Amino acid sequence: xxxxxxxxxxxxxxxxxxxxxxxxxxxxxxxxxxxxxxxxxxxxxxxxxxxxxxxxxxxxxxxxxxxxxxxxxxxxxxxxxxxxxxxxxxxxxxxxxxxxxxxxxxxxxxxxxxxxxxxxxxxxxxxxxxxxxxxxxxxxxxxxxxxxxxxxxxxxxxxxxxxxxxxxxxxxxxxxxxxxxxxxxxxxxxxxxxxxxxxxxxxxxxxxxxxxxxxxxxxxxxxxxxxxxx
Length: 230
What we know:
- The protein is an alpha+beta fold.
- The protein has one domain: Ribosomal Protein S4 Delta 41, Chain A, domain 1 (Orthogonal Bundle), CATH 1.10.1050.
- The chain is built from 11 helices and 5 strands.
- It has a 5-stranded antiparallel sheet, with no helix packed on it.
- α5 crosses α11 (221-228) and α8 packs across α9 (134-142).
- It starts with a helix and ends with a helix.
- The relative contact order is 0.14.
- The model is unreliable at 11-22 (pLDDT under 50).
């Protein structure tokens, strides 16, 4: 019952419009520099010497190279929230909706929030190596190439459930590009253990629900909970 409520809340028409219309149009590399770490927003480029964060690890702006003062506890909480938002490519309204769903669960709020974010359909496509970035994975979903249980799903924020089978159906030229992407990305990372991926047939099965230990980046979710609890 709870899973059905989550899907209904996150896949309504208003949320669908927000995903399509709410976009960050400025340089993505500035976000990594602002958070002081690689967020891997530009796919394979982030693992090369062309990465802007490697060249300029200071904060963006004319005073970014100055030595920063010790941040307040509120600043630490805010930066952690902004970091997670940017990793998953979300705006404040949608991210807050995910947090509200997490608070309704009997599980620990912070861990539940990360679990819900990992179960987003665009993130699943990204984790399965079918896309080099979450933005690219979002485009795959929006173009209608993704099917779950035989039905087309074109909402990136759709939350997958344990046992569901996901398939990408597309024309041969699209599948050819997907194969090239998989071959390239598989040299840098692998798909997580909570999903079973069939690269040759472009299928994914959700074997179990993800946990915090499955995250690649270190995230202090408790700071986000404290920030929203004020």
